[in-house]
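Quick start: read one record
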Amino acid sequence: MNDTLLLKDSDVAALLNISRAMFWKMVADGRFGPMALSMGRSKRWRRSDVELYVRWGLPERAVFVQRLESEATG
């Protein structure tokens, strides 16, 4: 993994120091904040969103999205 802008599930899991299985469980349960981008049949996550998610203390998806929206509107 390098400084790529879009991350695969394995890259995100490595950044969070968890297994891919745990990562996908967090996604399914709504505990992983950033939303995925669909690229064909695969999914990618913005590195900036994942870094922000960690900086904000790993909030659940609803809280993360709400905070993103509030910061975007100023």
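The chain is about 55% helix and 15% strand.
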